[in-house]
Specification:
- By secondary structure, the chain is mostly beta strands.
- The chain has 1 helix and 8 strands, in the order βββββββαβ.
- It has a 3-stranded antiparallel beta sheet. The protein has a 3-stranded antiparallel beta sheet with strand order 5-6-7, with no helix packed on it. The chain has a two-stranded antiparallel sheet with strand order 1-2.
- The chain is globular.
- The mean pLDDT is 87.
Length: 77
C-alpha cells in the first residue's frame, strides 16, 4: 500500500480510482515515473463515458487523457 499526503491508498478499479501512480512512463507523456497524480474526470459526455473520461494534469500543467493508454500505471483510491 502506498501513502499519499498522510492517506493510505488501496488498489482500485478504473471506475473507482482517485489516484494514479506511474510505474513506467510512455512515449509522449510528460509524467514522472514513480509519481502519484490525482485522477480527474471529465463528465461532459455521459453517453460515451459512464464514470467520466479519466485524465491527469501532467508535468507541463496540461490535461493528459492518454496517460492510462500509454503508460504502465497502478490505480488507487
Amino acid at each position: 500500500m502506498s501513502s499519499y499526503n498522510n492517506r493510505m491508498l488501496s488498489p482500485a478499479s478504473e471506475e473507482e480510482a482517485e489516484y494514479v501512480e506511474i510505474a513506467c512512463g510512455g512515449y509522449g507523456c510528460r509524467v514522472t515515473e514513480g509519481q502519484i497524480y490525482k485522477l480527474e474526470r471529465n463528465c461532459n459526455n455521459p453517453h460515451i463515458f459512464e464514470y467520466g473520461e479519466a485524465y491527469i494534469v501532467d508535468d507541463d500543467n496540461k490535461d493528459n487523457y492518454a496517460v492510462l493508454l500509454l503508460c504502465k500505471t497502478n490505480l488507487y483510491k
